[in-house]
């Protein structure tokens, strides 16, 4: 009965439903009944993936025949608007791929996604990079697209979304030909043979609102330059491996909402621009700093912490816990509501950071405004109960007047007796907020033959005299 009701729908609605399926599954509906035999031929969205055709010898030939049949039998009165093609470890002639692209590229194509892992290099059709209608373009596994320099002109006047993996090609020409680009995912890869590719300059389009940028291409000599002059940017995810000195220029980002920084460096001198970048991000509402980016602030690269007047959520990966560092940060985050601290303490980092002197100025003596008036949640990952860590937890619990939840992930390397002592000690600290709940998470609860439930009740037995409603134990 349900199938009969669906069959009564017009083809346009049925095709809209089928467009959410991989093309192979959409085509398979043709065997349902005579009514469905030709519906798929009006599809204007094709999603073709060779991983469904691989088992057994001769899979490439079967895959080619399958794609050829789809393109030949579909109804040409319904031009393709979205085309997605994924081919992995494909060794057939590049002419086959080009024939398929020629069949789908046209004045109605709006979205094109290519993920091609090819044995041979191909020249993509020039019409693809001069299409007036294309709004979204993704070129993944970019070792096959060594072709931009051969085009005298690249111009995509309607393109708003671009995803690009590039291995050996400077993406500047492609980026400069996208005058209205808003969302960019650019991943600059290393040569698989181990040698680095030198790309002297990458200039991001000024029109961007969202930028995901991963750069693994810096070399051991020379200075690479990355320009992020994008004043309209609202979202930034930056992951850079700076094995040598890297120069990054940027504008202010007055509209920034969310920023994530992963800055890996050989030496701090290679990334002296990080504090300036934080200053440019001062208007963001969410800031996440991975440990290498945080190291730049630990090492005296800057003598002052930037002010973050609109920051609501802060996520920090720190190499070693330092109370003065966190208190300085909190004093400059005036309306902060959520704080996450993750101590990434490894043998290498601990040895390194105990050898150096922290260049963190003494924090102000007054309690920061965000702690007394705004901070609602705090999460501590890999808690080990050092003196500094206990001091900071006590500071927040006693002075956090609007705190609602404090979550503490106990380090899995701690023995069970130490974990009991931590729960008992921290639970006894007086709290400035009458609604603050303590949430303890044991990351390795099953020890010494005890299951999670027995551990839970043993924890509870330690909390005599404590309001159980204010303590949450998650084994």
Short description:
Helices cover 26% and strands 24% of the residues. It has 475 residues and is of the alpha/beta class.
List keywords for this structure.
single chain; alpha/beta; 16-stranded parallel sheet; 475 residues; 14 helices; globular
Broad structural category:
alpha/beta
Radius of gyration: 28 Å
Uncertain residue ranges: 347-357, 448-454
Shape: globular
How far the N terminus sits from the C terminus, by CA atoms, comes to 48 Å
How would you describe what is shown here?
The chain has helices at residues 2-7, 11-18, 23-28, 59-73, 94-104, 172-176, 274-280, 291-298, 323-331, 347-355, 369-373, 387-399, 416-427, 452-461, and strands at residues 45-49, 82-90, 111-118, 136-140, 161-166, 183-188, 201-203, 210-215, 224-228, 235-242, 246-250, 258-265, 286-289, 313-318, 338-343, 377-383, 405-410, 437-442, 471-474. It is built from 14 helices and 19 strands. 29% of the residues are buried. Helix 9 (323-331) links the parallel strand 14 (313-318) and strand 15 (338-343). The model is unreliable at 347-357 and 448-454 (pLDDT under 50). Helix 4 packs parallel to helix 5. Helix content is 26%, strand content 24%. The chain is an alpha/beta fold. The chain is globular. The strands form two sheets. Strands 1-2-3-4-5-6-8-10-12-13-14-15-16-17-18-19 form a 16-stranded parallel beta sheet. Strands 7-9-11 form a three-stranded parallel beta sheet.
